[in-house]
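Record 1 of the preview.
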Amino acid sequence: MSHDEKKIEKLIGKTIQFWRKSVFGYTSEDLAKKLGVSKSYINNIESGYSGISFKKIEQIAKALKISPLTLLRGLPEKEALDAIMEIYRDPKYNVTIKELEALIGAKFRGKHITKKGYLQLLDLIRSGDFVIDSESYRPRDMVDILLDEIEEEINGRK
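->
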């Protein structure tokens, strides 16, 4: 196995661990029971010691009731993830799992986004102009407009 393949498996493992533990509050034993596998198997996947097939990714995603694509996308950098989780954990925003998936999966041209930027994206998602269902079409122009506004704010041009 190449170094890059091992790195990808570790990233997927950390993503699974994040969703299992930080979002749903499951232990590795809880997830193992849902999947009919051993706790050590889950620990090995999450640590990157065991390879993981697309089929197993799909099964894990189904057990967590999230999209397999969410597990394959990985996680944003720590600062961005902290901002997203602060919004998610705040009851006044009442963020759903689908909205959380969209926020975590959003790629912002490699820029650091503030909590305000993620709140703007959440507003866009909720406006109906941005569909988060993976089966539906998402108007790209609305996303691009938001990304441009956020980028301008980051660069201090607004």
